[in-house]
Amino acid sequence: MSAKPEDTDPTKQRVVLGVSGGIAAYKAAELCRALIQRGFAVQVVMTAAAEQFVRPLTFAALTGRKVITGLFSSASSEETLSSAVEHIGVAQENDLLVVAPATADLLAKFAHGLADDFLSTLYLAFTGPVVLAPAMNTNMWMHTATQANLEVLRARRHRIVEPEDGFLACGMVGPGRLADPEVIADAVAAELNRRRDLEGEVVLVTAGPTQEPLDPVRFLSNRSSGKMGYALAAAAAERGARVVLVSGPVQLPAPRNVKVVPVRTANEMRTQVFEHLDAATIVIKAAAVADFHLAHVPQQKIKKTAARLSLELDPTPDILAELGGRKRDFLLIGFAAETENLEREARRKLETKNCDMIVGNLVGGDDVGFESDQNEVALALRTGEFLKLPRASKRELADEILDHALNLRQELTSKAHGS
Fold first, then answer.
1. CA separation for the pair 258, 243 (Å, rounded)
2. 286-304 pLDDT, tens digit each
3. CA-angle at 137, arms to 131 and 142, nearest 5°
4. Digit-coded pLDDT (tens) for 95-121
5. What whole-number distance in Å separates Cα of residue 69 and Cα of residue 81?
6. Are 35 and 15 in contact (CB under 8 A)?
7. By three-state DSSP, how is residue 87 classified?
8. Is 143 left (phi over 0), alpha (psi -120 to 50) or beta?
9. pTM for this one?
10. Could you give the domains of the chain?
């Protein structure tokens, strides 16, 4: 019997099904079928232990795809080199990662960032939503170590499909049995549907620093890495939006399904923002635009001398204020990087720039903010609220900010209709 041809329909949502080693691994075949019946394209990744319970051929026949079982291939050096980065490609090509069954060992690896096989390495490279369906012995499930790992994973906003109570293969009765495959498939569908809540939106994001030339070889800039803006662009695209990312000079890969418009100076950024503004429904100004520039840049390099050098700097265009002055029906979100008085400065900027939301954070520390993958922000909202979000990765905060943006727009729309 030959496997059905691989499904390459680009309109389908793509799911990675991770299968780890437990007696419930055979139920993953039922889950695979349920996901396919719901219209998802499924890529199966198995751990070595999972292969002891169910053969890869089972999943290959169901999906029409090669089942990934290890980081490296032994067939040839060329295939080995290709396999070495395959987890990155799989992470970028798929919309959701679901693991069923998720063993105690796998939960611990995910929680602590251990990566010793394809599935755990893929997890570290994956930026989309994650659904975990644990299955294990009751005592293992109730152990404080497992519960602590689950708390870590929940804090990352992963969806946990808790195991059912019942008779287990070990003979015990209690929680630990893998949830029904249809329940897990429903959770996957719900997560993807929730994450597609920006379909029909056009999101315009700015990110990174600008560089304002002082001469042909020097420029004024700042410490912005662009990571927060890129995380917002990636999150919006994954949730179904059409995204335009106007980016200053950064060392980051372009997010998948995002149109990146590279710029260098504040004036170039302003030009591109207003060129793409007409279609935008949400504008997020996450870029750290330089405040000053040299009005007349010398054509030749300024030579070093013993004498003091004075430069006369002019203000750069205030893009956020100009957007606020032209605001129509788009939602306008600005950023405020402050070193003190965060709430006061965020509220002031909200009013003076005519924004709907200001995302503020204190900068100057070494572990959050500029260059870091972590951040800790607060939101000043047009409704008068000031919300502090707990420290998290910039990718996780991106979804939090988008969630609050959608809720804010709904609230503002309701008030407008009620007035």
1. 5
2. 999 988 888 888 888 988 8
3. 75
4. 999 999 999 999 999 999 999 999 999
5. 16
6. yes
7. helix
8. beta
9. 0.64
10. 14-194 (3.40.50.1950), 202-301+308-418 (3.40.50.10300)
